[in-house]
Amino acid sequence: MQHFAPQTQPAQETTYSLRSRQYRKPARRRLDDEDEASSPPSDAQLDAQSDSSDHPSDSEQAAQLRVAGLLPRDAAEIPPKPFPHAPARPPARERLTSAKIRECLAELDPPLFAVDATSKGGPVGGTGPTPELRQRHLGVLTTVLHRCLLEHDYLRAGRAWGLILRSQIAGAPIDPRNHRRWGIGAEILLNRGGPSDTGTNPASTPSETELPYSETGFERAKAYYERLIVQFPNRKNAARAVDNLTFYPAMFSLWIYDASERSKRAKRRLQEDGDAEDLPVDDILPQAAAIVAEELAQARQIADRMDQLLTSPPFDKFAPLLHLRGNVGLWLSDLVLQTGKEQLGESKIWEDESMEEDRETETHPEQLRRLAESQRELRQANDSFNRAQTYGDQIISEITSTEARLEEISSRIAHLQGT
């Protein structure tokens, strides 16, 4: 029994068996055709048909029949060409195929049907390397794949996924985009060899300060998305196909998650170490600043890659990617303001107390530089949100929130410039 969606496209599957074909309703004909088919032919029509068959219109053929000593009504018994210039060919032998055997068995009284037949052309008894066995083999591999994924055994899941991709149905390879299974390859590459891979080390479980995957796994998953982007480019004649318009948001989302999670867990680990060793704040601040600076560098790298992509079609009008670029702009704006704060944990960059603290610990030029950079990122985010809304994405709340932040930053800049 098939428990999961098949690995093939619907066009590669056989849909009707011999028995189902016999019980299918015939196509409805027009009323005029039914009247003509139901009414018997008249005598005049029969005479016209006999006259047309007895007296061929081709005079040359009639002359050849007279020379051969044959009547016009014997024309149907003449062997086809190349007779009389060459002997007549013997009739072709009818091949006894599995489909013919099924038809002969179905014509018996009572009819017999092969219980394991899934198509009219399948062999009786299901013997031999048939598409039915391949489908069954793929079903077993798919079940093994999902079982290994549920048990976090990514090593064996990768082997099953590799066997599926190397299989062929009717001479065509398995497409990883079928039923949107392309994400399985990224999940396997991301987690294989990491702390969550119980197939390699059952005793290892990731802690709260440790990522469930390794840095090598992230690089493998990112390279996997890059290959899919190159292998399946966008085509205008296949508007609904899964192509790089689908893979780019997935790759950027994974990249953003990796950068933010690494920074968050590093801050948590630093906080725990500082509380355990009772370290002074002055010793912790440089390490915290380095963590924020690393996250800011990753965010800028992501934003630069997205800006290069959004300058060319069809990505310049792709609403999901524009929406994601707006969120990256908000993320950058927060990180720029966090680089000047002298505290750990959750930042409160939009409260007056934090602003006063920044003003006390930084010079006016440094504060103005950070606020101006944050304002620039917010304007970029607002522009991306407006473009995404223009091309079909409903994000009114994000636009309103971004505009409120812009007003607050502008007022803060005006206040610093006036002092």
Automatic annotation (TrEMBL):
A GO BP annotation: nucleolar large rRNA transcription by RNA polymerase I
A single MF term (Gene Ontology): RNA polymerase I general transcription initiation factor activity
Residue span of region Disordered: 1-62, 191-213
Annotated Low complexity bias: 38-51
InterPro entries reported for this sequence: RNA_pol_I-specific_init_factor, TIF_Rrn11
Coiled coil stretches, renumbered: none
Ranges of biased composition (kind: Polar residues): 1-20, 197-208
GO CC annotations, alphabetized: RNA polymerase I core factor complex
One Pfam family, short name: Rrn11
Protein's UniProt name: Uncharacterized protein
Organism: Sporormia fimetaria CBS 119925
Source species taxonomy: Eukaryota, Fungi, Dikarya, Ascomycota, Pezizomycotina
